[in-house]
Batch of 3 targets.
Target 1
Amino acid sequence: MVHADASNFEGVSSKEEVYEQLLLQAEGLFDGQRNWVCNLSNAASLLWHAYKSLPAPSCHVNWAGFYTLDPQTPNQLILAPFQGKPACQLIPFTRGVCGRAASTRQTQLVHDVLAFPGHIACDADSRSEIVVPILVGDNRVVGIIDVDCAVEGGFDDTDRKWLERLAGVIGGACDWP
Amino acid sequence: MVHADASNFEGVSSKEEVYEQLLLQAEGLFDGQRNWVCNLSNAASLLWHAYKSLPAPSCHVNWAGFYTLDPQTPNQLILAPFQGKPACQLIPFTRGVCGRAASTRQTQLVHDVLAFPGHIACDADSRSEIVVPILVGDNRVVGIIDVDCAVEGGFDDTDRKWLERLAGVIGGACDWP
């Protein structure tokens, strides 16, 4: 199979099924490859194309990707591979939905970002967001999965369940700096 | 300006003008930030949205991003941030258009990839390709810019000129491993 076909979700109908296929494809693409930049680049592409294959609200996802720990500054996230429009480079743990997920090591599912105190507007189009911490070993956070949607209520507990599984796969599949 | 607006090329008409704006936006996004993963992630987004704002053939670009040197294996490229469908993880210098650009340190402008001996088909949809080496210091290659198009003849000397300028900006703007 050529690599691009990993993002072909045609004929897969439900969100559960799309996420299940996404996880299988991610495991296939990570097989034998532990470079975190390489694997996050392909994972961002899989996420983007998975959402675009689904009905609303998922197809309105307008950003899907990753932040990792900034090697220069403790308790700060730095932009990593993503698909979507250009994004904020640095996010302190004290700021926004991403900072909250990293500092608490807990998934943040935000139905309306405008109601989230300290929300960082990298893109004025974003209306809802889910951020899942990537944890390794002894509960150490190495990064986050961040997905934004251009409509309110873009994410639910199905997204939470599968993105937490994906975070587990990614955490274990890469050598982290 | 919110970061996402950096990829707004509305009202910019010619390819020259779009590339000129892309370079200005890239320099703005790189300002004060030398992390190569962060900067390549935003640069891939700028490239993608620049092509999508242009008339055919440029709007048919189906992959835009980067490969860097594989820290594990000499004379091999490894996938870095991109926008588009999932891609080949590893490319030896001896293979394909990307390998040729890295090993020769020369831009490769390929009107028809099917006529290029040893072309690597990460995506069967790709029909033309331009690959520009990113060089630093004493002509050392640190990576490549790779852009694929779903139609033949997707790139010309205007693309070459501006992507070589972008490669110069990127090379100087980042700390490379």
Target 2
Amino acid sequence: MAIRLSNQDADFETRFSELLAGKREVSEDVDHIVRDILDDVRVRGDAAVLEYTARFDRLDVTDMAELKVSEARVDEAMKQVPQATLDALILARDRIQSHHARQMPKDDRYTDPIGVELGSRWTAVESVGLYVPGGLASYPSSVLMNAVPAKVAGVERIAMVVPSPDGQLNPQVLAAARIAGVSEIYCIGGAQAVAALAYGTDTIAPVSKVVGPGNAFVAAAKRRVFGTVGIDMIAGPSEVLVVADADNDPDWLAADLLAQAEHDAVAQSILITDSADLATAVEEAVERQLKILPKAEIAGASWRDFGAVIVVDDLEQAFPLVNRIAAEHLELAVADPEAMLDKVRNAGAVFLGRYTPEAIGDYVGGSNHVLPTARSARFSSGLSVLDFVKRTSILKCNAENLRQIGPAAIALGEAEGLAGHARSVAIRLNL
Amino acid sequence: MAIRLSNQDADFETRFSELLAGKREVSEDVDHIVRDILDDVRVRGDAAVLEYTARFDRLDVTDMAELKVSEARVDEAMKQVPQATLDALILARDRIQSHHARQMPKDDRYTDPIGVELGSRWTAVESVGLYVPGGLASYPSSVLMNAVPAKVAGVERIAMVVPSPDGQLNPQVLAAARIAGVSEIYCIGGAQAVAALAYGTDTIAPVSKVVGPGNAFVAAAKRRVFGTVGIDMIAGPSEVLVVADADNDPDWLAADLLAQAEHDAVAQSILITDSADLATAVEEAVERQLKILPKAEIAGASWRDFGAVIVVDDLEQAFPLVNRIAAEHLELAVADPEAMLDKVRNAGAVFLGRYTPEAIGDYVGGSNHVLPTARSARFSSGLSVLDFVKRTSILKCNAENLRQIGPAAIALGEAEGLAGHARSVAIRLNL
């Protein structure tokens, strides 16, 4: 049973602050292990990758070529996956593509009033490494959500890594890679895979950026290679915040809260409503649905340990709370969601109205499901085409306008004690 | 004397690769010290900040109020700074503002062919902390380059921290803060200042993002608070790459190379030209100018240890090298810089033609001088308005279009073993 708060309670602010401050992740200290693996792969390349793969994934392989997934194996995977799943993946791919195409930033080039030319020019990152977890969290939808924006951006090469412990490889993930247009796939994982992507080996050419979710080893490796390559965000456990008026079917809302909770025992589902009756009805519906949910153990633990139901007098009062929570996913299950949207400042994605369950956004809505967690929507955004392009500034002066703005640059160079800066301008103006 | 390479040399590729791989920064291992400072400030707040400030900045202060810079002190600073410098700062501020205003991303809201509504909505980060180094590297231009884009984005609160060792505070920095519209200023620095901004204290309200350059302690602190707050890039030593044809004044190019070199003994200046004669003339001009440059010791060390002159047969051959170097600053001092610009894939900022010395971009060009260093222009961009806004995805289905795309979401939820996801869609479709 989740906690229940009411903004009428005397201790509401204290308890709400505790809810916000609550840590849901136990950080594993794997940094020193990861450092050694990275150093080893940087020095010994393929040989080190093979050894770690033998040790951690129990694969008896002596040649990296065996770890590269052949086109034939992907063909085979396409046959193994049911047509309905392939069709759903293709629908998802197409919708993600259409939505992300609108995110492509435009170059800007202009001349200012005194004749200085300025501009911003966007180019795609040349190569991207995509980490896909093995085992339970090996999701084909995640392959699409990471690879399709990169393709839309114009990334030429997408190298995917996915561990195959004991040789097990999810054919859905290979099918999704094919559908998304991934260029190469290697059956490696963990810190050694991140190292191979960042530093390169004889077999795997280095990439410029590494994206995708992973366990504590992968996250620590990404933090460490950051700088050598770019990385995406380090995602925490998933979360949903549902804001609901009284006029909702409690079963629908309970299903949404549990869809989030089933991800992970440290996922978090929160309901804010102005109806204490609805709150109670949803709590009861959650308990009923937990009886039939296959992942009831995980979802039940998440709901019990991190779930929360917050009753407010008036939904107007929900918005300061919504913006402090800064949820990854925010559902507005209310009569006029548009009016409420204007009050939302911090959220990864907003799902408007009663017919937009968050799971639509996970799969086929078209928007990205890689979103800022752990209140980071206060300062960051979901994955987008912008993560796969970079901007170059352009500046062009001529002799005349350099004469107009140059003296100010000389003044600032001198004020900052950088005479060489001042001189590089002055010398062109015969000053 | 910088190294000289020619692409005619048999060992060119090896030596060029070595140049690329060269480490210019000695990473100081201050991480455990920084961890303790962060933990201490998180727990003890103002009291800890006061103690570290007393210890590291030798300030005998017992009340945080004394570390808050008053409006009167800023008024005083405005009087101390020469009018020519103030005028130059105001010109720079206005030009930075105009350029960055064009970077503001536009909201997007649309309905797709089946009636699903989608969108992207941009909002400003609410509060930003701006770190400004004390001592030598305390540059007013850096205050403008960090604060103005935040103001343009709509950030409501900009809290600046700047250490004042022994009570010394650069009035130019205070003047720049006033001119840029900084909201509050505290005379604190180091990891304790980053902690105060990220976690908040009784005196300093926490911010959502911390930006600005700093020493190894500040960089380590920023890495550690990342997640609790957003951070900008961790900048490395500065660098310039000048591509020049034969038709250049060697003194101008030498001045540009030295303007970069004077920043730091680990800065890097590289010249690529198709004229061996120009190369020699520039090398000689550098030596001549070093005799009169105030910061000759720093600039000379940088040029000797990290400078490079690369002669190519033909400037066409420069571009694969330019894109591998991925310089922070790239000058195209050639007859037709526009034609060359099309071949540039990786660069932080490009300065076109003979009349655009890089120093113009440092101060008054209007583009940002916070740019990706150490080859990170392969995957990242300079500071911009985008660093101070975040995007929320919007999705809205109705009963009809949920019926169209919902079954694909159900199929994928089931394929991924997430029955709760499937159920949250199915329950709305009576499936």
Target 3
Amino acid sequence: MKRFTNAIFSTGIISCLVFATSVSALDEKMHAQLDELKSAAIHSNLSYDIIESLTTEVGPRMVGTPAEKKSVEWAVAKMKSLGFDKVWTEESQAPDWQRGELKVSLLAPFNHNLVALSLGNSVGTDTAPIEAQIAHFRDLDALKAADAQTLKGKIAYVAFAMERRKDGSGYGEAVGARVSGAAVAAEKGAVAFVMRSVGTDSHRFAHTGVMRYKDDSKQIPALALSNPDADLLENALKRNQPVTMGITSTASGTLKETVTIANVIGEFTGSEQPDQVVTLGAHLDSWDVGTGAIDDGIGVGITLAAVNHISTMAQRPKRTIRVILFAAEEIGLLGAKDYVARHKNNMDNHIIGAEWDFGNGTIYKLAPGMGENALVEIRKFAEYLAPMGVEMASTNNAKGQSDMSLLGEAGQPAVNFYPDGSDYFDYHHTENDTLDKVNQEALKINTAIYTTFAWYAANSGVDFRK
Amino acid sequence: MKRFTNAIFSTGIISCLVFATSVSALDEKMHAQLDELKSAAIHSNLSYDIIESLTTEVGPRMVGTPAEKKSVEWAVAKMKSLGFDKVWTEESQAPDWQRGELKVSLLAPFNHNLVALSLGNSVGTDTAPIEAQIAHFRDLDALKAADAQTLKGKIAYVAFAMERRKDGSGYGEAVGARVSGAAVAAEKGAVAFVMRSVGTDSHRFAHTGVMRYKDDSKQIPALALSNPDADLLENALKRNQPVTMGITSTASGTLKETVTIANVIGEFTGSEQPDQVVTLGAHLDSWDVGTGAIDDGIGVGITLAAVNHISTMAQRPKRTIRVILFAAEEIGLLGAKDYVARHKNNMDNHIIGAEWDFGNGTIYKLAPGMGENALVEIRKFAEYLAPMGVEMASTNNAKGQSDMSLLGEAGQPAVNFYPDGSDYFDYHHTENDTLDKVNQEALKINTAIYTTFAWYAANSGVDFRK
């Protein structure tokens, strides 16, 4: 909040300094346009209202659910109502998985109902519940090192706790167990795989997320306990008595029939180089447990609001601005894969892109991934953002975040905007990812940054590949 | 944390000041004994370990459940292991209620599963689910003012949101709707009563708690939504379209057969006036959804640890210290009622009492309820606590908190210790009331305060009635 206030009140002074030192970068006209857009975004509730609409009128929108189809209709209608010129969908196929019901209990030495969620793609318990002893592992490496005989007929439990960090890097250290833990455990004879949730909160919400079996290995149920329930299990294990757990799950495993997914794409057409597109990305799908306000309702709100703010300017941007609301990000960037496959012959027209898929914090860093000559130009834009607390990274290897990383691999230059992600994994993939968690002040600042970025990229004439 | 550190490091200096100004109050010997006990409590994990044991080995312990019976056995064994001389139970009868299963959905204009809990004593939905339109009320008074015709066939919804305050006084303003809202709504023809949870958090946990029907009114299902789900409902209502909700509940209502409950009482016998008892109270029962770490595992931990610390002193206290772990507090102080009925002829021997049933904060105030002469003496003890951040209230009307209030009404002098309760109603009566929420540093300080209080009351020779 403090930073926000300072940014607003000091804009006049600091932007004059910036102007004085970089008059050749952002000319006076561009500077005034960016100021106009920034002010519009900072004084508008539009991005929040879009998130409110999505989470209230659609809610959770997991691939394979009716609500996911409804979200596509919602997005098409919302883009049209916000002033996009062209709106279309691009359909493809995705595997289907149904969560079903899950009951997890501690059976011995004490009896407790435990809060848990099946991991995405997990199979269920078939005909009979599983009741088995827990084999306790510190982390995935310890599980990998276990002898096969020690897991036969047991439930493998991995206790690793994710660390809270501003850049969210604790996720990378923890998520491996979620993705591959069940496959490793199954190879060693385990009958189920249980882990401490990949999350930084200490509330009784389990964190779901995608997992994978190996093609040739046995498929065993895979689930995550809430952090307090993992604590309880570990306190029971400290008693040095056998600890047994019961699991009943009707999770479907990956189903044979695929479902149709759709990227929703909207454009605000450029006035001079309409074939050159600046892309803003977010993902429209969510997990099924919360309403997906943070992941990734915020991205939907920021990108759609950015185009609406730009549409109110006296003149159109020179290049086209394209918002891509990707499908099926949560189960492996499937919408982004389809987008790249479908547009591979015109990736050269993708001038630069940025995604928003990291929640609630205020942006503190702009990291470029572009040609060396373009770096000079993006630094001028970064200087414009400096009074809002944004620094430019010294590296030049950004490939785009989340879905947009696949476009980056296909050659699209990128800017990665980094928000403070300290609280992101408190809500990530939980029932608790709801509208009330949205930080409305940070959202306004971040919307202002994406709006001005899109305008700058579409009007500066920079070739970001050079 | 800061206050804690200061208290420890400044004890030497400040206690000398106290000693210099109040040499007649706490003599040197008493002062040294209190310091010894304070140090023991501050450097011990015992109260935490007791809570860990209760929540891990027993867990939730709602009246009428097997775990509640197990908690009585646990408490008897724990008291004996901690050095209590006499331990016994006093059984009585309580009404039984079973939560059953609850499913709540928004059906129109949007479809959502909602997080909700039945209120204690609520009936279920009998043979068929309820599907009805929501009638929206700001608060209980607005519901009371409604015309009967407006509620016929509808679900009454009360939106009142509890305020967060240090003294927890927002609870009193909000809880009326929980207790009597369903009775009011039923009289006006409503088919169900739904409210925003009485709680200060914004997590997807509903807060349960007891409700009452009027003897002569129709019994309708009563439930509370989590705060984020209440937000969602209210955002749907803002669309000015009819909002309908579906409720399926197998809650039992109050059952005809009663269940046996038991206060668990333990004493450390006084050396000189064993018939005079200083009472420390907490309640052993909890709601069924969390593990009751905060409500009231902390009270169990503090009071049991206090006696254990006292049992390690070179001499016994002159008066007896009695810990009463009350039964069935959550459904109307039923254990306390039985205690007062059973001990009414020897209440004069109850010298003074204090309860702990307000969670996690550090104590900042001592409020007396005693004879005017005794006030001078308790002020000396309050001065001893002053370096730990405790002020003495200017009033003298404390009757005891929670269960202990009934002993206060029956004539027992009281001290009420007030902790910072700002976060108490984040966890109160939710699934999220678990061990990890316990503030271990505050717990040590509060244990030190209760331990020194019990010692002071048992050894000062003060008649707190005079």
